[in-house]
Specification:
The protein has helices at about 10-25, 35-40, 50-60, 65-70, 70-75, 80-85, 90-105, 115-130, 135-150, 155-175, 190-200. The protein is mainly α. It folds into 2 domains: about 10-105, Alpha-helical ferredoxin (Fumarate Reductase Iron-sulfur Protein, Chain B, domain 2, Orthogonal Bundle), CATH 1.10.1060; about 115-200, no CATH class. The longest helix is centred in the last third of the chain and has 20 residues, at about 155-175. It is globular and about 50 Å long. The N and C termini lie far apart (about 40 Å).
């Protein structure tokens, strides 16, 4: 399979590039396509040839549709290998996170619904309590997953998920890696304030 073609959109390129750079805090204009990020991407084999350098190129050239709808945005694990290899210190993980938020804000259907549910539950738990409580966060994730599959009448998927997570939970408990306590951070009000400020900045 060949790498995806890029649709060049001169009218949209500059405002889209500025928006992504402002929201991610990354200077995408500094990318000169050396592909060191692509060579070290830990999920490169799973993203249908969408590599970090190609994603940056799509943003720079104004291909908004593909930049917001590709497997790298949803499968990036934020390992930051791309950033450590980049000679200009561009952290693509922050770019994929920004594009993910933009896709959600535009109500685009996620290419990886399970990842979208996991991401949403994780972020909401962290903002609500100031830190992520594993049991509460996973409960919220499993509820989202179940509701999504009930609507789609995919009851077998729900059963498979329960079996998988139950097995994983038992292994983690045996290794004393399952945390049943519930903790609340003292600074959660500040975290919520930062989120509100971020949302206001994104809409202006």
């Amino acid at each position: 399979m060949a790498a995806p073609a890029i649709d060049i959109n001169p009218d949209q390129a500059q405002p889209f590039l500025k928006e992504v750079m402002d929201r991610s805090g990354q200077n995408l204009s500094a990318c000169y396509q050396c592909r060191r990020c692509a060579a070290g991407c830990s999920v490169g084999d799973e993203t249908d040839f969408f590599t970090p350098n190609l994603l940056i190129r799509m943003v720079v050239l104004g291909d908004r549709e593909r930049a917001l709808n590709n497997q790298l945005v949803w499968k990036c694990v934020s390992c930051y290998t791309c950033g450590t290899r980049c000679p200009n210190d561009i952290q693509t993980a922050r770019i994929t996170e920004t594009l993910k938020k933009m896709a959600k804000a535009e109500h685009l259907p996620p290419l990886q619904p399970k990842i979208a549910d996991f991401h949403d539950a994780f972020v909401r738990s962290g903002i609500r309590w100031g830190r992520v409580n594993e049991m509460e966060f996973m409960g919220a994730y499993e509820m989202k997953f179940a509701l999504r599959n009930i609507k789609a009448r995919q009851f077998g998927a729900i059963l498979d998920e329960v079996k998988t997570q139950a097995g994983l939970g038992m292994k983690m408990t045996q290794l004393r890696r399952m945390h049943f306590g519930f903790l609340i951070a003292k600074g959660r009000k500040e975290i919520k304030a930062l989120q509100r400020k971020s949302k206001q900045r994104a809409t202006h």
